[in-house]
Amino acid sequence: MIRQILFTAVGVVASVAAAWAQVQTVGDVSFAVPDGWTYQPGANFGAEVLKTDNRFWVIAVYSSMPSTGDANADFRAAWQRVVLAGPDYQGLPGYDPYNISASVGYPGKYYDGSSVKQTTYTRLYILEAGKTCVPVAFVAPNRGVLDGMEHTARAVVGSVRVAPLRASPIQYSIKVADLVGHWTSGIVNSIDYYNSAGQYRSNSLTAVRSDYTIAADGNYIYKFGGLMDNRMTNDDDSGVIELGGEFLTLKGHRHVTTYRFGNLQQALDGSTVLTLWPPVDMTKITPSRDSTYWTRSVKK
After folding, report:
1. Domains with residue ranges and CATH for the chain
2. Less crowded by CB within 10 Å, the N or C end of the chain?
3. pTM of this prediction exceeds 0.70
4. How does pLDDT run across 210-242, given as a tens digit for each residue?
């Protein structure tokens, strides 16, 4: 099946039927197509393709399959269906797959593997959507190339919806009007410390929340509070939001903070999630480590 995905990717170059669209469907599964990527339908999957002179990335979303209720078992079945369907890969992963974290979509699992001849590298996701599950394959020539587009794969995986739900487009540009409302962001982190003999000594807890209320003219009010390393902390500020190119700057009276804008997506519960990164070159960003998420809840 991975070989079929690659044939589809190669066909995109010559096919005038290849489509550019924000949302596509495969059976009862819908999903977003990122800006700049080309969509090409396949047999029981839809492929999203990006190619440069000597590199390629393919994200393939498959038709749904019945869920056993065991995500690890579903992952193994999806690996058999997608990755082991052809001769390029052999065997199941030797470890349990990882949990998908910080996603706006369905929960699930993922794991990676390289082809026998080391010519392709695949990360397979299985998304648990109640009685069904959805495989998503992310393929590139090697691990380094694949990780360079991890942020895009995470956005596509988060966009997947099973009917009657419908996927929403991934928004890659913003205006101040898109930011109006009340946003929250939080971090919870607990660290246990042990001595050289392995005896427990102490715990450090961080649990903080940030609130941003943004008006239509770009002015905002910021409040921050919680525990930082077991100590109460709080802060507040106000100012104006400035947008420029790929960056969002909170220009406050006390603090100035700049982020790189990632994307804007709709979560499963209908809330809007804004993904932000440090203001550095994308080659220095690891989305799973460096992403900051703001959430705007649905108005009741």
Report:
1. 2-162 (2.60.120.1690), 176-296 (2.40.128)
2. C
3. yes
4. 999 999 999 999 999 999 999 999 999 999 999
